[in-house]
Amino acid sequence: MASPIMLVTGGSRGIGAAIARLAAERGYDVALTYTSKPDEAEQVATEIRGKGRRALVVKADLGVEADIVRMFEEVDTGLGRLTCLVNNAGILPRPSRLADADWADLRRVMEINLLGAEIACLEAIKRMSTKRGGTGGSIVLMGSRAGFYGAPGRAIAYATSKGALDAFTYGLGKEVAAEGIRVNIVSPGPISTDMNNEVSQPDRIQEIPMGRYGRADEVAKAVLFLASDEASFTSSASLMVSGAR
């Protein structure tokens, strides 16, 4: 029996790398993408192969449609028919108030965090949908609790992109439910990753009821639950991994 195949965008470090590693432990062959650090991506792939699973590394900019299309074609050729898409790739611009933000940064956030996620889901559906000859599958998007509280003074554009992903998840899950595809979103609170640590503020831990930052592996476990058959009747759902924030 063929192994399930998972594509993790932004899988070279942080939460994405944790998802890719755990997926391999759970029996998936894994494709992971990177944009600028191939050595980090290859290190994750080496760990996956060490667990006895196949791994494929793809360079792709999720803000470029042609890259997204090619990414899926490389997975088709290199691993086979996709079982699960985890759309984890995203960017967090430098902290600023909206009035001080750069137009190019605002556009780039939306292109990668929102539009790129939508195009990736479009390509995944083409391969998974039972109405298009597929056998079904699962899509898990990476949201953020910032989409709920708005991140004023720091990252309103980022929060907006993630809040829009919630609406996208709710709608898309309903749209493809009869085609054998489940669509869910994981919404982390503050997680200790390179990206978050670069812009974090020391006093933010006071905002977390559990009194600590989350770990990447804690988010990965939530993602793998939603991807699995254990969540077979769960779609259009948001799972908060936020220490009660």
UniProtKB/TrEMBL annotation:
It comes from the Bacteria. InterPro entries: NAD(P)-bd_dom_sf, SDR_fam. It catalyses: 2,5-dichlorocyclohexa-2,5-dien-1,4-diol + NAD(+) = 2,5-dichlorohydroquinone + NADH + H(+). Pfam families: adh_short_C2 (PF13561). Coiled coil: none annotated. Belongs to the short-chain dehydrogenases/reductases (SDR) family. This is SDR family oxidoreductase. It comes from Sphingobium nicotianae.
